[in-house]
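Hey, can you fold this one?
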Amino acid sequence: MATRVPIPPGGTLTTPLRSQLNAALLSTSAIPTIHAALLHECQASGWLDLIKARVLDLLRSGECVSYGEVMAVVLREMKGNGRMDGEGSFAVKKENGVNGVNGAGSGKGALRVPERVVEEGVRVVRGCLEEVVDIEGEEGS
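Sure. Predicted structure:
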């Protein structure tokens, strides 16, 4: 069992506390558990395919020619302040696509991380933290 990290109620996440939490999480199977849950939800929601399609679109169109340019555009669009329509979506060119990616589906997709991925990520991280954290002042601690 991992060493439990005491957290004062209303405590702030200082660098030493963050290091303790990281060490506690690394001493358990928490990191692989969190990774697997997020990867599964990203795949199940189609978000990874959407990102791949957008990257291919950027490279094939010549809009981006380097990794740095692709990352800058994709991250900007994920945050919602890039070249998209007014609904946080981009138009995918209708070419070379199958299975709903790169034009074979609706032709549009939001680059933001889907809400269900965020919700599942929060649920799993919370569960992993509860295994290694003791909040001081809570009943049972």
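The two ends are 17 Å apart (CA to CA). Let me know if you want another pass with a different chain boundary.
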